[in-house]
Amino acid sequence: MCLALPARIVELLDGELCRVELGGVRKEISLALVDDAAVGDYVIVHVGYALTRLDPAEAERTLALFAAAGLDPGAARDHPGAGHGSSA
C-alpha cells in the first residue's frame, strides 16, 4: 500500500529540488511535477516527488487527523529500512 502525505517546503534547492519537513523529519524531494512552489507551501509527497500543492488549512486538517488516529507521519524515521522500498 502506498500513502501520499502533506509536507511543508522549508527550503528550495538547486534545480527542481526542495527540502520538506513532516513530523520533525526533513527530506529532499523533487518539485518536477509542481509549478511555482515556494517555501511555506504544503505539497502532497509520494515516493520522493511533490505531486501537487495543498491548501494550508487542508494540510493542517489532514495532519490533525493523523494525530487523532495516533499516527505519526514522521515516525518512519524510527524504523530500520523505512523508505527503502520495503512494503508490508
List the helices and strands and how they pair.
Blueprint: E1 5-12, E2 17-22, E3 25-30, E4 42-46, E5 49-54, H1 56-68
Antiparallel strand pairs: 1-2, 1-4, 2-3, 4-5
Shape: globular
Number of helices: 1
* Biggest sheet strand line-up: 3-2-1-4-5
Average pLDDT: 84
Radius of gyration, rounded? Answer: 13 Å
Q: What's the main sheet like?
A: 5 strands, antiparallel
Percent range for β-strand residues: 35-45%
- Poorly predicted ranges (pLDDT <50, ≥5 residues)? 77-88
Tag the structure with descriptive keywords.
5 strands; five-stranded antiparallel beta sheet; 1 helix; 15% helix; alpha+beta; 88 residues; disordered C terminus
Report a brief summary of the structure:
This protein is an alpha+beta fold. The protein contains 1 helix and 5 strands; from the N terminus they run βββββα. The chain has a 5-stranded antiparallel sheet with strand order 3-2-1-4-5, with helices on one face.
Q: What does this entry look like structurally?
A:
The protein contains one helix and five strands; from the N terminus they run E-E-E-E-E-H. It has a five-stranded antiparallel beta sheet, with helices on one face. It is globular and about 35 Å long. Strand 4 and strand 5 form a beta hairpin.
